[in-house]
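Hi team,

Below is the intake form for D-aminopeptidase from Priestia megaterium. Please confirm the fields before the structure is written into the shared record.

FORM ID: S-0412
PROTEIN: D-aminopeptidase
ORGANISM: Priestia megaterium
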Amino acid sequence: MKLYLSVDMEGITGLVDHTNVLRQKENYERSRKIMTDEANAVIYAGFREKCSEVVVNDSHSSMNNLLVERLHPETQLISGSVKPYSMVQGLDQTFDGAMFLGYHAKASMPGVMSHSMIFGARNMYIDDKNIGELGFNAYVAGYYGVPVLMVAGDDQTALEAQQLIPNVTTAIVKQAISRSAAKTLTPKKAEQLLQEKTAAAIQHKHLVKPLNPPKHPTLRIEFANYGQAEWAHLMPGTEIEPGTTTVRFQAKDILEAYQAMLVMTELATRTTFC
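The structure came back. Fields below:
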């Protein structure tokens, strides 16, 4: 079995606010270690379950957070940016399953550090389906026929995953109290849970189907203010829906929609407060 692992940071055990996940903040270096050890728990469990290959994609911010020297020696790590497909870089039809670790709930929903790519995005849609990073990445996996077997993060992330992907295994490492507070497991307990859940997810992989995306999806992103919509609209092929801060793009497939989302959200970050 060939396993793909996408690792974000906000949903990692014990991480609760910006001081944990921003490179310039005081708690970031210790957070990297916890993130790496948590990824290792899944990787080691995967190899114990007879995975022939495990590819790990660092999926947070600058995407060079994982400490490669601490990873299982047989791991293949995708690190750094810019990546054409960001959080799902390297995922293709050769994989038998994917797992999302350290994930968070989508924008405008409760959950620890909930957001969708940038803090200026209120909602993202594929056709009429409201999705976040988890959903978008699962659609790309589905495009290649790859099922998402496990999602790990807080309780709100697990709920989002269960509503989106029937029979997905979830690993809840913390319970959200607010967007910047949680009741959390310790790293050792979380690593034990993740190993157990990884094994269960692989053993029950036949129960999970790929999340198939629409063939010609319409991407819609609702931004927090009109300036962000104006910046996103600079991308050719987009239009601002009248009377809203929502920018629409008609894509030929989910891969084009995904890259359009990356460009639109990157442009939107150029908006200033005044």
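SUMMARY LINE: The chain has two domains: 2-117+133-207, 218-270.

Thanks, M.
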